[in-house]
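Interim report, section 4.2 (structural modelling).
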Amino acid sequence: MKNAPARTPEITSVLVRTIAKLLFLPILVTAVAMLIKGYAQPGDGFSAGVVGALGILLQYLAFGRRTAERLPLVGFAGKGVFAGLLIALLVAATPVFLGQPVFTHYPPAGASVIYVGTIELITALLFDTAVFLMVMGFVLGGVQMIAQTIADEDEYRGPEATGPEFDASAGTDVEPSSGGGRR
Amino acid sequence: MTDQTLLVLPAGIPWVLAAVFALLDGRRRWVGRIAAVGLGVSFVSMVALALRVLRDGPVEVVAGNWPAGVGIVLRADALGVAFAVVSIGVMLVSLLYEVSLGMRSRTFPAVVLFMAAGLTGLFLTGDIFNFYVFFEVSVTAAYVLTSYRERDYQVRAAFIFAIVNLFGSVVFLIAAASLYHVTGSLEMQTVAERLGETSPNSAITIAVAIFVAFSLKLGLFPFHFWLPAVYVGSHPPVAAILSGALANIGSYGLLRFGGILPDQLALGTYAVLILGSASIIYGALQSISRSDVSEVLAYSAIGQAGYILLALGLGGPVGFSAAVIYAVVNSLNKALLFLVAGLRGPLVGAAFAVGALSVAGVPPAVGFIAKIAVFKAALAAGAGGGTAGAVGTVVFVTVIFVGGALSFVYMFQIYQRVFLAREPQGGHVEKPSPRATRALVGVLAALVLVFGLWPEPLLVLGEEAAAVLTGSPGDVSGGGDSP
Amino acid sequence: MILAFSLAVAVVFGSGVFLVIQRDLLRVVVGIVLISNSASLFIVAAGLTRGAVPIVPLPGGDGASASDPLVQAMALTALIITSSVTALLLSLIYRLYVSHDTMDIEDISVAELREAEALERKNRPEIEENPEKGPAAEELEERSR
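Predicted structure of the assembly:
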């Protein structure tokens, strides 16, 4: 384990990198489609968030942490959780100030909906976007946090110690080397 | 102010503040202060809600303007608000305590707020699955709190805590799914109504699963093994929050589901009573044999939980009201004792003594009221039961008395060791803690005394809460009857 | 179908319990994940109905032909909660791994005992005379047998 995959992206094969590059946009488009069509067809903010996050994690796998975090907005993933939470709370709480129960969505069932293309503009969509942000932010933020901790650890221990192979950007966690503890 | 605003405010404020504060550095003084003010506002609105509920009866809202039966029901009744008020109060005091000592972690205020949000939601929901979700929110916040300050043993304690509690959550989740399967509803009142028509076999299995899940949370005797490990290493305000606020989930859950499954509770009366008595005696004996303050308090928590279970098992309006009163009083006691145990300086010893008297159930402190309530429940249970009832009463009264006497012994053992030992331990003179922190603890101790001398609000709360459980809201048959 | 589901739940739950009682912390986490997933499986089993996609407007006009959406929502929520708690647990064991270089719970306890003793020896010099007789040393002795 001289070359930890996190620091030398070239260790992944050409095949993986090409596929990752090719799949990147389609995955994100699928995620957005699942998000906005969630009311007429299967899909919702959560599954959209998972699909989107997996798409970006694939970039982590193929090109390493540094390159992946250069993608727009990926660096702010951790903040996305709280932005999402605030939007969700806003959607939930607004009806209370209008004298309706929490989580009342507008426009109500049966009323006419504003269309943008084929997208129906309803507050439930905003709520799902918030969920989407939270899921994306949670997955990516968590991975970034662990990757960052490991990078700091390596720096601290010096280059010889490769550190524990619990590297999220390496994709797999190699055996936790617990054998040494048994006598 | 409309009912629903009142219902949403106490849970909504902590949610919003938690989301905001998670991005800020909690070690800054102003962040901690604003968080405390926010939690204070939440507490005040909760008290307002509680007064409203006690005056006008339960407040109910169906979320999302859905028809009843489809949407998630939020319901504030006397039982829920009683637990909510005391839990948020304990968390508020603990947060203020940490702010006055100086926060050492950036996430502490946010985590406490998340937990407050989860707990208020849990106490104010009328939906079983929603209950599970809020319960996970607050328990997850608790895992993070346990590992606060990141010492190795704290991280290990958090790990054990998380594993054990996750197991409990899974058992509860399975019970919730089974309830949905047999009744076709998750709304607590509907479930209670429909359970009578289902097969008693499935109902008793579900009841046992729920009992195990909440006993794990509460740390009752056979399920207590994780509790000392978690409390011993933890920081005083964290321990206070865990035992004064989080443990309430266990007692609340047992009571609430005892009201939903009254026939099963009546069937299991003997098991519940025996486990409760065993918990009291075991906790007291273990406490006496320990020397570390937090360890003694941890084992004492096991014993105190036994009283709640005993009162629950005795059942009937008197028993349920005793259980509620005991749970509320126990939260106050534990918060006071855990907070005081970390302090040094003038008047701290006095505050500890108040807490110790309260645990032992000696008159001026509020613990006396709680012990009397359990006594009354034991007597009431014996009154209608002939010879068997009389024997039972004698046994339980003895257990209660012996438990109380033992708790007196162990509490004052610690008092002697910690506050009366003249020579400073470890060769260094201990600095008195900040005045603000001591004042805070003093207020808590004063509260324990005030409620001891003027127990009416507590008794009314207990009676109203018991009425929720035994009474007619779901028109369930009249609660678990006495043995 | 009920038998298949209950067997599956039992096997998953049992494997989870087996892993939870291991000494390796990573296995414990995997075990608790399995236990949680058996609960999700149980939820699905408890409310499984076959029917059309439960999206309004319903194909048959009434709710009879649609499958029950609530069960799926519950299972999904349970999964989300499990996944976030798993992330927390993994970060906790990572934290332990960093400070002890092992994931074995007993090794960690022994190391902690040793640290506690070292601390106590520093505070109370009279123990110094007999450093071999600490609980950690005894524990080590016992385990080397």
